[in-house]
Design a protein that fits this description.
0% strand; 68 residues
């Protein structure tokens, strides 16, 4: 797989980890889901690296599915 940020198997795996963890929080209490990614040098971004956009696309797709 060349680019995988929206690959169905990747999204399903991350979604499953989140869904499995939610019951561990106290009922009725709010919590945040934090997505984290490694940094990319500015010179790489200037060259047009797709990583930041791919991370945002993955997080959006994951949360869209979990929110349903």
């Amino acid at each position: 797989i060349d680019r995988w940020p929206l690959h169905a198997s990747f999204l399903a795996a991350v979604q499953r980890r989140i869904v499995d963890a939610i019951p561990k929080f106290p009922k009725g209490e709010q919590f945040h889901i934090l997505f984290s990614a490694h940094s990319v040098p500015i010179k790489t971004l200037v060259k047009g690296d797709q990583y930041p956009g791919e991370i945002m696309a993955s997080a959006h797709a994951i949360m869209k599915e979990i929110a349903h």
